[in-house]
Write a structure and sequence with these properties.
Blueprint: H1 4-9, E1 21-27, E2 36-41, E3 44-52, H2 57-70, E4 73-77, H3 79-84, H4 92-102, E5 108-109, H5 112-129, E6 139-141, H6 147-153, E7 160-161, H7 180-189, H8 206-217, E8 224-226, H9 229-234, E9 244-247, H10 252-260, E10 265-268, H11 280-291, H12 303-312, E11 318-320, E12 327-335, H13 349-355, H14 358-368, E13 374-383, E14 388-396, H15 401-406, H16 409-426, E15 430-433, H17 445-450, E16 455-456, H18 459-477, E17 488-495, H19 500-512, E18 513-519, H20 523-536, E19 541-545, E20 557-560, E21 580-583, H21 592-596, E22 602-604, E23 606-610, E24 613-616, E25 626-627, H22 629-640, H23 654-666, E26 670-676, E27 679-680, H24 683-708
Parallel strand pairs: 1-3, 1-4, 4-5, 6-7, 6-8, 8-9, 9-10, 12-14, 12-15, 15-16, 17-18, 17-20, 18-19, 20-21, 21-22
Antiparallel strand pairs: 2-3, 10-11, 13-14, 13-24, 23-25, 23-26, 26-27
Helix pairs in contact: 2-4, 5-6, 5-11, 18-19, 18-22, 18-23
Length: 713
Amino acid sequence: MPATTPRRAAHGADGRAGPELLVVEVSLGSSSRDHDLRVRFLDRRYRLLRLGTDGDVHTAQALVRRWSELADQVAVNGGAEAAATGLLDHDPAEATARLVASAVGGTATDGHRLREVLQEWAVRRVQYEMPGYFSNARTVVLGSDHARTVRVLREYTDNLHLEAPPVGAGPGRRLGGVPVLGRVARLAWHPVDRVRSAVGDDSLTPGELVNRSWLRQRPRDCDVVVATYHELVTFGFPDLHGKTVITSAVTDAQLADLASRDVDLVLDSTPQPFESTVDVATLEAMMRAAVRAPGGAPERLSDDDLLEMIVAAGLEPRVLQPNGPRRKSRFAFVIHPLSQKFFRNVEPLGTVAKVSPPVVMDAVEKGMAYLPPFVYGHVTGVRSPTGAEAEGWLITVGGTPKEILAHDPEFTYDKLLEAAELARRLGAQVMGLGAFTKVVGDAGVTVARKASLPITTGNSYSASGALWAAHDAVDRLGLLERDDDGVIRGRAMVVGATGAIGSVCARLLALASDELWLVSPETAKLLALKKDIEREHPRAVVHAAATPGDHLRHMDVIVTATSGAGKRVLDIMDVKPGCVITDVARPLDLSAEDVARRPDVLVVESGEIELPGEVRMRDIGLPTGVVYACLAETVALALEGRYETFTVGRAIEWEKVKEIYQLGLRHGMRLAAISGVKGVYTDEDFARVRELALAARGELAAAGPKGRGRKAT
């Protein structure tokens, strides 16, 4: 039948809406929500009559038989509700099928065709409008009537928990091609079939208590709960704080209750075009009534009919945020011990490390490299000014830098892929690589290609954070002036300028200093970089050199980014007193011994970032709420809902450095600390360096040209 035929049949000869259509909803659910409404739908007038039977199947069958001869269409529903609330001691699917079969002339529907379309549409709509929302979401499914929802969610996440605890046996069947849903269905009505809403009722059997306990605990570690409101009631409302609830036909009162339980998002697959809440079966019955010719036999809705009516009626699943716009994302970040002393933070190694001789600790260090990854800590309380939230897990691999460098890259790749799988099981949507794990081999490219979730090294924010720290350090020392545009009146140098991070730092410094020196032995690349910077920033005065040479003594700001793995890249004794050196190389270009030789120079290893919100996490050697920039990049991506491989490989993109910096600002991140070889610099540290630098400059000035020709002391 053409899709336009039903529309014509539904109107009179004068084009006005035809006679009022009667649709009766016979429900196995509670009679407390019965109604008698008159509404307009699809350009027709309808009378909607709801008759609840409180789980009485025989009464419901009699009502279906009676009204199927009197009404234009009968809707049957409420089986899952009645089972979930203890009103029904039958398999709800079988009970519903009996009601449909009781109708005279096939005029009854349970709404299954429209339900499947709307359940799928609801999930896909959210995933489209909020990309990645269900990606790897930890999901718990309660009840039996969510087969299509589960099938669609499987496209986005494998973290679906459908199994019932091993308590009792009961009705259940294969549902929608997802056999395990039958077991979920048994859970929904078997041990609690006599329970109504008395959570903690003394009359509950041990099996019922086990079921409730299991279902209360499971959602604490999940992100999405798929259940009707009545299924949530049955199981005593598990912890729904910050969760997404996928449900159907939720009433205003029920929505208010979910809001009070701090639900983030309620996804109602059943559109509600009227003032009173209606079930999907009623909507489908109204559609079937519209295509039925007056006095004729009911006709099956064609796919064209269904689509046309959904569009014509403006039916859409409801995406409800009862507590305002909020979105919670999940991340993981890989860390590792930087030396043997870090073993003291993990018991029982901490006890061993305190009493064992070096030879034993050397053996422990080797053995730790072979341990599987494990969760070091849980990060919570990250909340952006935008309302977005994030939680994450710090996952540690056991190798120190010494052990990581002693193995082939494939050894570390395997450990990182194990960490990625652990992160996936935890529900993470993006994973960052920290410290040496992002340096090994091809710097994350292989791991990103093989991992089960997106990967970032954090190098984009590391580059941005290091320059941010240098900028702040210059201001805190107070030895240089800035012009009206904020440009430093002084000279800057990048050693290792043609490298991935070095070239980015060079472009940033070209914006912030009067004069810029680019240093690298790669002559051709150096000339090309110089040309690019001059084209991008015509104001910049750019020089090129193969080695730092005598230019060092004139520099006010130096960035080292050579990744020379301990090779000497500059003589710190030649550096100008009061110079700010930012060492962004990993391993560091400057040793602790070098830094100690020049107390009148400020050497910055990193700029640490303060995360927004009331952050709670295990100690990583920084103040509360403060993290390394590479970790901050992972968090920023999570807060933005950007579950993507952002920074991998050694060629960092200038545009991404700017982008992640802007994302950090958008989500309330700020530079919180400037760290050197001994940890975070304090105000006293800055004052001491400034005093020593001014004294050294005074001595050099007093010595005259001959003194300025000697190395700084």
